[in-house]
Amino acid sequence: MLSFAEENYLKAIYHLSEGGSEPVSTNSLADNLETKAASVTDMIKKLAQKQVIDYKKYYGVNLSDSGKSVALQIIRKHRLWEVFLVNNLEFKWDEVHEVAEQLEHIKSPLLIQRLDKFLGFPKYDPHGDPIPDENGKLTTKPRTELALAKKGQQGVIVAVNDSNSAFLKYLDKIGARIGTPVEVIDKVEFDGSLEIKLGEKVIFVSKEVSTNILISE
Amino acid sequence: MLSFAEENYLKAIYHLSEGGSEPVSTNSLADNLETKAASVTDMIKKLAQKQVIDYKKYYGVNLSDSGKSVALQIIRKHRLWEVFLVNNLEFKWDEVHEVAEQLEHIKSPLLIQRLDKFLGFPKYDPHGDPIPDENGKLTTKPRTELALAKKGQQGVIVAVNDSNSAFLKYLDKIGARIGTPVEVIDKVEFDGSLEIKLGEKVIFVSKEVSTNILISE
DNA sequence: ATATTTTTTTAGATGTACCTAAACATTACT
DNA sequence: AGTAATGTTTAGGTACATCTAAAAAAATAT
Fold it and tell me: Which listed residue, A53, A136, B46, B162, has the most CB atoms within 10 A of its CB?
């Protein structure tokens, strides 16, 4: 049985390695988990001993198969709870993260199975992120960063890259939600900002914002 | 901010002191929390320092007002989650305890406020125990142990004293649920067991069972 | 009222998850 | 290639929540 701290490490490694492909450095984990590099070294030694990661000194860590599976289960729980909070408890999409960070550590396979059923087996969370199934399988639709779209390109917002509350509130303000249609009117060479048609409105968004909006046709 | 362990101590003290009236001994806490007396002494010193309990060496502990309020909030969360599990996630009343033990420690006043609303502001949990309101206020209906009822007395099951899974499964088996009408047909002097009419059936229940069933008219 | 038993507390250890400071490896820069 | 900068690990220490064994206090029994 893994502790909350251990589970958080596995989740962080999963995210930082983009799904378990690349190795993750000690410092990037320390940053991500808001802790110190020395603490990370301590913990990854323990996780390596438990066989959930592969660790070679000075070379960073990789999730093992079992570690990846644990990480995906935590992500599954996190996202299912987010759906519950938004769909049933009137939470806004910028309010769910903190609470889901706690709920994701509740240990009860039955609970998650039943919650999934209760929610109608959702495939995506309120930020458009895919929810892994019981076996940890992800169904990822092709999606592009809005920042990479060409002038004239059209699409629909399917997800956001950042679940930061301030960012999501800004999106609410400009009327950008999952499902909102977008069209690139113009790209500003100077700072990479975009002029876009969002629903019925035409506005400018910074490069940073457009990097964090994911669209598909 | 209190840790899970600290919260569990406060909850245990609340239950063992019957709502904060009598002092609770070190050993009874150790028994209840399945830990050792020495560990309890350590912890109650810390809780006393945090002003959530009153502690005098060798005299047992009492909840302070703030400690009582914390305990009631945890009990509120526990019972609301139990309602959710039974009403919405198809859990049976003997399956909810363990999961609710985890869920009660989630820290988010908004979550509990919204959950309460979602559930329709329930007053009792699946075992018939009253749910404290936001201010920790309990509405307790008068209720008697079935074991204390007199021959010929009639009533309705309103709660159970023990949430032990085996006991609840037994109640399911004999058809005893919250709301089931009961009538005392006869009391057996010898072992204190009862002959009762439960719904439409007439059966015998042991003294131990009847002690754990609460009825009201 | 004294001795015995029970209960509670203290003393000293352990494992977890952190920390700082210092040592060591790797990478980047003239 | 040699040095400086950056990244990582080790060493040693802290707070938390637990433990065992022993000492001390309170309750019980003779």
Answer: A53
Residue A196 C-alpha, separation from nearest chain B C-alpha, in angstroms: 36
Name the phi and psi angles at B123, rounded to 5.
-100, -20
- Please tell me the distance from the alpha carbon of residue A176 to that of residue A170, in angstroms, as a whole number: 9
The answer to whether A47 CB is within 7 Å of strand D is no
A90–B108 C-beta distance less than 8 A: no
SS3 (DSSP) at B108: coil
Specify the pTM: 0.95
CA B118 to chain centre: 23
Q: Residue A12 falls within a domain, yes or no?
A: yes
Is the minimum CB–CB distance between A91 and chain B shorter than 8 Å? yes
A13 to chain B, closest Cα gap in Å: 24
Tell me, in Å, how far CA of B88 is from C1' of D21? 50
Q: Of the residues A29, A47, A63, which one is the last residue of a structural domain?
A: A63
pLDDT tens figures, B108-152: 999 999 999 999 999 999 999 999 999 999 998 899 999 999 999
B59-B63-B66 Cα angle (round to 5): 150
Q: For residue range B194-207, what is the model confidence (pLDDT) as tens digits?
A: 999 999 999 999 99
Instruction: Say which CATH number the domain at B184 has.
Output: 2.30.30.90
